[in-house]
Amino acid sequence: MSAPAQGVTRHAALSGTRDGTSLWLLPLVSAALVAAVLIYIQVASLDSIEARQLTAENILTKTGQHIRLVAASTVAVVLIGVPLGVLLSRRKAAFLAPPVLLVANAGQAVPSIGILVLLALLYGVGFQMAVIALVLYALLPILRNTIVGLQQVDPAVVDAARGMGMSPARILWTVELPLAVPIMLAGIRVALILNVGVATLATYTSAGGLGDLIESGIALNRMPVLLAGCLLTIALALLIDWLAGIAERYLSPKGI
């Protein structure tokens, strides 16, 4: 299957929230998971260690840290990936696209924990290092979808705009980018979900997040803490995927 076809297929696959019933399925499942965690904490017989880990304050703190990691890394990767994708889609720079995509593919092929540990060893630990690792890991979907989205624009449309006297910059902003938006948004959506999952590993760089609960549950052999961390991460991923689907639905140009 060609790259444009793969991009369109992925976009279609990721747009399942567009019909009425399934539109509300993800937030309902997310709310059910959060409710299950809260009920479990209330009714379970927790020891002192589990009780300290599963206080409302600690859960909210870890969730807030996780959201900040995901938000910062996603904004950064969009600011890097979209302009780079636009540049590589231009005729004069098209020869650079294959090697750049090869490097991006290689970066995603490396286990995410390996990227985090390598950066931690080279540059230390903390929030910034975790964000850099997340950016490196999530760059490929946005970069690839930006290139594919621009490449699939009908050349006849571009030629017509050029025939009307539009400059290359104006053609890009008023013709190519609007037509590429659906596929680009699908790439951003994939990057968001990748970041939610990979951000759990930021605990190993002392960046916090829900990964702290998961790691503590494993290290201390406390299943309630481990289960709470996993379920809350899943709930957050589902909620963010739903929000991204809503944004994708309303930001895509009408008629596309």
Automatic annotation (TrEMBL):
InterPro entries: ABC_transp_perm/SBD, MetI-like, MetI-like_sf. The keyword Transmembrane applies. The keyword Oxidoreductase does not apply. The chain crosses the membrane at residues 24-46, 67-89, 109-140, 171-204, 224-244. It is found in: Cell membrane; Membrane. One of its GO terms (biological process) is transmembrane transport. One of its GO terms (cellular component) is plasma membrane. PROSITE patterns: ABC_TM1 (PS50928). Residues 63-244 form the ABC transmembrane type-1 domain. It is a multi-pass membrane protein. Its main location: membrane. Keywords: Membrane, Transmembrane, Transmembrane helix, Transport. Belongs to the binding-protein-dependent transport system permease family. This is Permease. It comes from Sediminivirga luteola.
